[in-house]
Amino acid sequence: MKKSLLMILAVLIILAVPAFANGGADDGTKVYVFASDATWPPMEYVDDNGDIVGFDLDLLEAVAEAAGFEYEVQNTGWDGIFAGLANGAYDAIISSVTITEERKATMSFSSPYINAGQILIVPVGYSGGEMLADFSGKRVGVQQGTTGDFAVEEIASINRRAYDDIGLAVEDLVNGNLAAVVCDSVTAIDYVVANEAFKGKLEILGEPFTEEEYGIAVQKDNDELLSLLNKGIAAVFADGTQTKLVEKWLR
Predict the structure, then answer these.
(1) Which of 140, 196, 220, 224 has the most crowded CB, counting CB atoms within 10 A?
(2) pTM for this entry
(3) What's the CATH number for 21-115+213-250?
(4) Residue 235 CA to chain centroid, in angstroms?
């Protein structure tokens, strides 16, 4: 009897060892994984230290603190980012994701946290029309699969050039291979104003020609995480944190 009891206790101890060995990993705390395509400064990008930084990352930190959840961020290429969410590779996406009706059919979105429309970037000294349709017959660069890409696709007469990274499109624009680039206004501001490689070479044309809201995408019907995100977003708007982040990153 004693021998059996000792054997049971020994088995229980052995089973318990991995949980203690992993520290917080098995302490019952849920750690949500967020995917981000860190190629969109100032929203999300990799800095000189190899860290993912930007407006979205600061916002996520503030939202998580306000709502009381743990998280980690995974750098993920845009071309497969939505498929990864659908198959459960991560819990959510925070990566300048525009809320659209089409996307809402396959994923859920948090409350909007910023409004950023599509805009045109052109070389300094450009003269001509300020509407997207004015670039009929000309080469216009976009990042594939983005809302800017969709907008250009709607005008069949534009010679659309799609890139895996918006930075490659901007480089082609500077090199004279494109007439314009279409991207989110916050990204355009970074390339035209803040990026030393392009200062004095590019300008923003006119005003945004779309009204678009960014949200955090989560797996369809993940009500638990969605509730936490909306709670945190409401808090960072209420206490002025969102406004401070706009001033820090987008002004």
Answers:
(1) 140
(2) 0.70
(3) 3.40.190.10
(4) 20
